[in-house]
Amino acid sequence: QDTRADFRFNLSHGATVADVSREEHALVSPIALHAMDALNMRFANVDLVLDESGAVSVLEVNGGVAYEKYSLV
Cβ neighbours of residue 73 under 8 Å, at least 6 residues apart? Predict the structure, then answer.
């Protein structure tokens, strides 16, 4: 059952934000920008995941940007 009471944000339930190196940034930036282009978005959070084989995938694209937890680090 999907209700507002059940709605969860990744960061508020244990997900972590990771800084990426310049090399990693060069790898993931085109993926994130392509996802945003596909959705006709100019500003968004793009959540990416790295699987066990090293493949990068788009988990979700969020138009509502919130950095409260990350900015406190």
Answer: 17
Under DSSP, is residue 50 helix (H, G, I), strand (E, B) or coil?
strand
Q: Residue 35: how many CB atoms within 10 A of its CB?
A: 19
Nearest-angstrom CA–CA distance, 50 and 48: 7
d(CA 16, CA 42): 24
Query: At 59, which helix (H) or strand (E)?
Result: strand 56-62
The β-bridge partners of 48 are 58
> Per-10-residue mean pLDDT for the chain, 73 residues long?
55 72 92 96 87 89 69 57
Q: What is the pTM of this model?
A: 0.67
**Listed residue (56, 54, 34) closest to 44, CA to CA:** 34
